[in-house]
Amino acid sequence: MKPLSRAERNDLLARLAEIDARLYPDDDAKEPSEKATARLEEKFYSTLAEYGDRLPRRILGRCPFTGMPFERAIDPFGLDGPWWHKDYLLRIEEPEIPSAYRIHLGSYSLMGRTPREAGEEVQPGPDAPFVIPRLLRLPGMVAVIMQVDLEVGDRAWVISYWSQQSIPAVRLHQPWLRKEHWFKNAKGKSSWTIANDTWDFDLAPYLADGRLRWIDPADRDHKVLGPADGRACPFVGLPGDRLPQIISDGERELSNLPDGSVVDPFSD
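^ thats the sequence. predicted structure below, dont judge the formating
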């Protein structure tokens, strides 16, 4: 399907909001009948599916071992898009990923603007790129940072993690924007946890030993660079709050850093 333009995307979001308002009206007397509710729900999910199917696919990283691209759907037009929401309802058919891909996380800068369009909660990470030391201690793990400039004027950094060695999924981490880490357990059944690993914003040591590599924002070929290339990484020492961001209802708040402790997902 043809990728969404900004206007087409905004039209789909307006349609979703209109359907949602009819499903959950402020006045209880205006609640739809059971039959009408079923029709509205079908329309809502078909509209949401069109949004997901037509999101642009972009390269968000590249395998440091084979050079194969890591390509994913993304909504570049604003944080009001369901793609960004913490409570994620989309089912997207994504491009095939390289075999060494393990997980990706991200950072996000509003570049000084107020996110007035944001309604539902978004947790896009801190203002500056970081690494998770525990992941980089896993066998053969290498991280790659790629800058992603968005149509709304914001800037993201996607940090993808790669290894050619087999690593049990339970040892990885929830992906960017998500709060839970879902995986198949030893019995092949779905299971989940919440990783609370500490972050490290001091990128220089990891760049020096090659465990962290990067892609030049000006390089349209997205070549992965490392210590042997002899170039300074532009992502070292970037400004910004080094705390998790929570964006909702047009406002931005900061939260506490993960501290490495075990999270009980069923605690209050």
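Residues 57-254 form one domain.
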